[in-house]
Design a protein that fits this description.
Layout lengths: L2 E2 L5 E3 L8 E6 L2 E4 L7 H10 L7 E8 L2 E7 L13 E4 H7 L2 H19 L11 E2 L6 E2 L6 E2 L4 E10 L4 E7 L10 E4 L6 H13 L2 E13 L4 E12 L9 E7 L13 H14 L2
Parallel strand pairs: 3-6, 11-15
Antiparallel strand pairs: 1-5, 2-5, 3-4, 4-7, 5-6, 8-9, 9-10, 11-12, 11-13, 12-16, 14-15
Bound molecules: zinc ion.
The site of zinc ion has 8 residues, from loops.
């Protein structure tokens, strides 16, 4: 089982343990050895050809049994092909094909490195921040401000009607091709997650929903979301895309679904579970 490191220890590149699994990011890609994360031996040729951005250290991310995960961002550009038979794979694709410990470590590593990159100086007094040695915070040695890795809670909702037999799916302008997915959006400050579900569905599709029930959650590192998935029932209104985020939508039955988000996303899991629940009913 993956366990997150509570203290973001710096591990000197020269002292990576042999059993470490390295999470090396290059922009939106991550370096893989086949379908696995490389160890220090397999990554040695790459690391001697391409420096890491924090020249002297990796960050500990967590561990699984005796194995630890250490992450760093590589300088760009990367040589093509990569030395040592390694490949650079888009992070979204790597998340779709990975599971369990590796998936959790990838999500946490992406979040932590992005957060560290954006929190080098104190927002109050501009002093350079330092690592805490008691928790995962950064702190300001001058004014004492402490900064913890931030999460952005987002709701994603499977709206159904006709006794749950039809689901509302929409095409976002940023989606590839004709991919349709669930309605989603960030929780606003001061809002409950149920209010966020009602508001997002109304803003994006002009319908009212009720009977909102929590389903599951999933961290999603683009850039720092915690996806909270819900079911909700259609109450009233005519579903209409908002024209800004969404350009089309529709009510779909399980036997006539449009192209769906790729496996590994919470949306794919929720839609799959909805189809299964209808088969079993
Ligand atoms: Zn300060």
């Amino acid at each position: 089982m993956f366990q997150a490191d509570q203290i973001l220890v710096r591990i000197p590149a020269s002292r990576l343990p042999d059993n470490a699994r390295l999470i090396l990011f290059s922009g939106r890609s991550v370096i893989l050895d086949g379908s696995e994360l490389p160890g220090p031996g397999r990554a040695a040729a790459l690391l001697s050809a391409v420096p890491i951005r924090t020249p002297d250290h990796f960050r500990s991310i967590g561990f699984s049994g005796p194995q630890c995960f250490a992450a760093a961002e590589l300088e760009r550009p990367l040589p093509d092909p990569l030395p040592g038979g390694l490949t650079a794979v888009p992070l979204r694709a790597a998340l779709a094909q990975s599971a369990g410990d590796v998936k959790e470590a990838l999500c946490r590593a992406k979040k932590i490195l992005s957060w560290l990159d954006l929190h080098r100086f104190c927002g109050r007094c501009r002093t350079e921040l330092q690592d805490s040695d008691t928790d995962s915070a950064l702190f300001c040695p001058v004014c004492g401000a402490r900064y913890f890795p931030q999460l952005a809670p987002a709701v994603i909702v499977a709206v159904t009607r006709n006794e749950g037999r039809e689901i509302l799916l929409a095409h976002n302008r940023n989606f590839e091709g004709n991919v349709h997915s669930l309605i989603a959006g960030f929780v606003e400050a001061g809002e409950t997650v149920e209010q966020a579900v009602e508001r997002e569905v109304m803003e994006e599709t002009s319908i009212r929903v009720g009977n909102i029930r929590y389903l599951r959650s999933q961290p999603w590192p683009f850039p720092n979301s915690l996806m909270l998935a819900f079911r909700a029932e259609y109450l009233s209104g005519t579903a209409t895309p908002d024209g800004s985020e969404l350009d089309s939508l529709g009510w779909f039955r399980p036997d006539a679904l449009p192209p769906l988000p790729r496996q590994g996303s919470v949306a794919a899991a929720v839609i799959r579970d909805w189809c299964a629940s209808l088969r079993n009913s």
